[in-house]
């Protein structure tokens, strides 16, 4: 699309080869990399601000996120806090920084969040993931109202399963996730839909699973689903498997 790109991602061995490949494929565009970790004890905003201080960022994509599985109390507290930082707090900090610049300079732009329909249903065995995604969708919608009349589009997308590294380091296998992974689509199959969503949607469900989940849960109260899931949870295979390891 002719866009210059700043890639903010984990400082792992895949980053520099990715940037080199992008530069070779698109020699007329500029690519920068900012290797950081969205962790509670890391000042990740400092390098982001430094590497973008001389350029104008008008398109912001908050896509970083991962999942911690298993019973909430059985998982180390710090893992939950890192999950919270990456999935939610980092999105707030990145958005706040660049949005202030857009508003101050009276520039148009867009801010897009990768959220999930997991935020719209009770999601046992992935408590922090569902909670952070509920926050992201709500946060996105609230900010959208404040800046819509400034020409800044804010959108949160809820993709169906995507074939990415998301599933690679899941510590506790969840059968529902394994089943969802089988229906995952390739990343490049949804990027066009994400761009098309930005100027016409505030919340956008992408793919059959996301749309079906939202439709199936839109007619009944959240309290009903919580009660129903609580009643039937002990009979689920995932519950039985992980409950046996409690204590």
Structure description:
The chain is of the alpha/beta class. The protein is 45% helix and 13% strand. The protein contains 9 helices and 6 strands. The strands form 2 sheets. Strands 3-4-5-6 form a 4-stranded parallel beta sheet, sandwiched between helices. The protein has a two-stranded parallel ribbon with strand order 1-2. The mean pLDDT is 89.
Distance N terminus to C terminus? 53 Å
Rg over CA atoms = 19 Å
What order do the helices and strands follow? EHEHEHEHEHHEHHH
Percentage of helical residues?
40-55%
Order of strands, widest sheet: 3-4-5-6
CATH homologous superfamily label of the largest domain: NAD(P)-binding Rossmann-like Domain
CATH class of the largest domain: Alpha Beta
- Average pLDDT over all residues: 89
State the CATH architecture of the largest domain. 3-Layer(aba) Sandwich
Main location: endoplasmic reticulum
Subcellular location: Endoplasmic reticulum
Keywords: Membrane, Oxidoreductase, Transmembrane, Transmembrane helix
GO molecular function: oxidoreductase activity
